[in-house]
Design a protein that fits this description.
Elements lengths: L12 H28 L7 H19 L5 H5 L2 E9 L2 E8 L4 H9 L2 H18 L4 H44 L1
Antiparallel strand pairs: 1-2
Length: about 180
């Protein structure tokens, strides 16, 4: 069995990232346009509720693919494992991005929350209009996304408070040494 193996040079990777993204996005947009034109027509707008529903669902799905531990196995499909060492009951695994090719494109995409959010927003919006009766699934993602947002804001407030507390303690120690 012969496989077609395409070789890319490292300097062509940026071009491949760009071309792959553009082709995939044009294909997705074309499918959406053809479907909406032939089946239901183009939406004239969305409600504020739907906008925030899609916004928070996009946030959650992006977080899911880029950061969650439960998707680590998926992200690992697009890296090379260089070495595995066992030292004193610890396993050390060295992972690195592939140098080039489609695996590198997907690896770069999954490592960039802004890039991934474009695709998740497209995906969620597509399915929102394609299957409007399944809005409850988008609602569940949106509720989880809202909870994630609240957690991130709470963490930021906590970190700011800790930093301020440490600075005050540092100044107090400095003043007590001067006395």
């Amino acid at each position: 069995m012969t496989y077609l193996k395409i070789r890319f040079r490292k300097e062509n990777q940026d071009l491949m990232n760009f071309v792959t993204s553009i082709v995939a996005y044009i294909l997705t947009a074309t499918l959406l346009i053809v479907y909406l034109k032939n089946q239901r027509g183009f939406p004239r707008g969305i409600s504020v509720f739907d906008f925030f529903l899609l916004l928070f669902a996009t946030l959650r799905l992006t977080e899911f693919f880029v950061y969650d531990k439960s998707m680590q196995f998926f992200r690992d499909l697009f890296v090379d494992i260089k070495s595995i060492e066992v030292k004193k009951n610890n396993i050390i695994i060295q992972k690195s991005a592939t140098n080039y090719g489609i695996r590198r494109v997907v690896h770069d995409l999954l490592g960039c929350p802004w890039c991934t959010s474009i695709w998740t927003a497209t995906f969620i919006t597509f399915f929102h209009f394609l299957f409007p009766d399944l809005w409850i699934l988008i609602l569940i993602l949106a509720l989880s996304g809202g909870a994630t947002m609240i957690q991130l804001i709470t963490n930021a407030i906590g970190w700011t408070s800790e930093k301020t507390e440490q600075e005050v303690e540092k100044e107090d120690r400095k003043e007590s040494k001067e006395k």
